[in-house]
Amino acid sequence: MPKVTTIAELRLFQRQNRMHRSWGLIPTMGSLHEGHLRLIEQAVEENRVTFVTIFVNPTQFDNKEDLDNYPCSIDTDLQKIEAIDSNICVFVPSVETIYPDGAAVKKYALQGLDKPMEGRHRPGHFDGVATVVERLFTLIQPDVAYFGQKDFQQLQIVSLLAQSMGIRICSLPTVREQNGLAMSSRNRRLSTERREEAKLIFELLQWVKSNFSSHAIVDLKEMVVQKLSKTPAFELDYFEIAAEHNLRTANSKKEGVSYRAFIAVVVDGVRLIDNMSLN
Ligand code: PAF
With a cut of 50, which residues of the chain have pLDDT below it? Predict the structure, then answer.
């Protein structure tokens, strides 16, 4: 399987494959799970050439400890990718390759999509994501890029960026563990017991969904806070209900608007996020 680490190697692979359009890209930070693998399978099905990038992007971590603890399993990742298709080009750049002028972050005008939820709780996070995704789009030049709906706010932001660069975005639904917990590279940092208990996050979202039409948003928000306070190991970072198209958080419902619930919880120092469409 082609594995490239430098821009020169990437360019050589691209020149050899320039006749074989279209190109699909799955940007990742490694520690691949079933959610990533579904995106890769979809890309392989839809494109002549598939690129997977593995790069733990330092500029999107607002917390140094979170970056230091981010899981890394490059050999297993390569095996998982190869098992899908041995022609996938895996780009594993160094920090210097992505940030030749030092890890500088650009400031983006993201139509307010970056302001609530993750943006509010992780200052600078989305500028870091947009900076690395723009760099990867520019280097790889894909026709289509694949992102999961688990990071729904990220998905809306990269969609905006991709639109300005003429790249199509394909998004796939969140893949869940058997108990409903959204797949995430961070889940492996949880003990078996906590991982089982973390199904509570999915159950809360399902509860909100089934009560959405009959309850006011403010009441639902209060009830989620109350329900979660009964499980002290699960510390609520935020629970919000927001309009799906512009991610503005809402305290009341408007006719014709699609809403989504967003939650972030910290469990034993591991930050877990999830979301669910409500109507
Ligand atoms: O979702 C992720 O893993 C990362 O935010 C991404 C899109 C690969 C950018 O570093």
Answer: none
Query: What tokens does 99 get?
Result: 């940030």
Walk me through the domains of the chain, giving residue ranges and CATH numbers.
Answer: 3-172 (3.40.50.620), 185-274 (3.30.1300.10)
Ligand 1: residues whose CB is within 6 Å?
27-29, 57, 60, 129, 132-133, 151, 154
Using alpha carbons, list the distances in angstroms from residue 81 to 13, 39, 57, 78, 208.
17, 11, 20, 5, 36
Cβ-based neighbour number of residue 15 at 10 Å? 8
Q: How far apart are CA 25 and CA 42, in angstroms?
A: 11
36 carries an active-site annotation: yes
Between the CA of residue 251 and those of 119, 125, 211, 220, what are the distances in Å? 19, 25, 15, 10
User: pTM score > 0.90 for this model?
Assistant: yes
- Between CA 16 and CA 204 the distance in angstroms is 50
